[in-house]
Specification:
The structure is a homodimer of 114-residue chains.
Chain A (H helix, E strand, L loop, with lengths): L23 H14 L2 H12 L4 E3 H8 L3 H13 L3 E6 L2 E6 L3 H8 L4
Antiparallel strand pairs in A: 1-3, 2-3
The structure holds a DNA duplex (30 and 30 nucleotides).
Chain lengths: 114, 114
DNA sequence: TCATGACATCGACGATAGTCGATATTGACA
DNA sequence: TGTCAATATCGACTATCGTCGATGTCATGA
């Protein structure tokens, strides 16, 4: 992989699990998106960011609550960002992560919810 | 793990990602449920079962479309069944798998959708 | 310019997951 | 009872993932 993929979650938009059989490509895209959510540390990071004041949090605010090292937290945030669930804005020395609006809703719809 | 877990998907019911920070246990439960959906083969199996006539399909109808060996398909179906997404009913020599109604909807709601 | 602090990247390790061939199990049928 | 067909389980291999310590990068401020 030579380039960073962004807004991966949009790739699974329009496809629905319960409609017709997923193509091989659509299944791979959706699986890649779901894989970003298939980790307890990443789910907790998402929920903590969502519950933070201003809807954003920096890495230093996240390492404590999840009980993981700074490199590990940074890695998980990168996975979530590349999957299209988080956005990153660097201000000074700090990197603030925020939920991408509608990203989780797109996954919900891909799962067949109306 | 000495016992088979059933209706795993119900464990994540009532919790929402965007509400308040997930507890360690809730995150582990939801991650386990999402992990069952984080594989292209399993997503295709779910969609094929959903699109089958009568809403159910036997293993022999599934090995061909997904292009995997019979033991591998059987393994994926077991994961989906233990996660609460599929139900298994054996009639004669055949094992028919069907979608568990509402299972995917519960995941959608856990993701924060209204 | 140099030191400090926040974050990202690297390299490595152990654990887990997906896949297969071989084999066991179970039900149907002659 | 014996054979065959459908499915499940087992054992092994490979690949991928989560985690960490060490190090690199960059902005701030003395």
């Amino acid at each position: 992989m030579t380039e960073i993929e962004i807004t991966d979650v949009t790739a699974a938009c329009g496809t629905s699990l319960v409609g017709e059989p997923l193509s091989e490509a659509a299944a791979a895209d959706l699986a890649h998106t779901m894989k970003a959510l298939a980790d307890p540390a990443r789910l907790r990071l998402l929920s903590i960011v969502a519950a933070s004041a201003g809807g954003e949090a920096c890495v230093c605010d996240l390492t404590g609550p999840v009980g993981l090292s700074q490199p590990t937290v940074s890695h998980h945030l990168k996975v979530l960002t590349e999957a299209g669930f988080l956005s990153r804005s660097k201000r000074g020395t700090w990197a603030y992560y925020a939920l991408v609006p509608g990203a989780l809703d797109r996954v919900s719809r891909a799962l067949g919810a109306a």
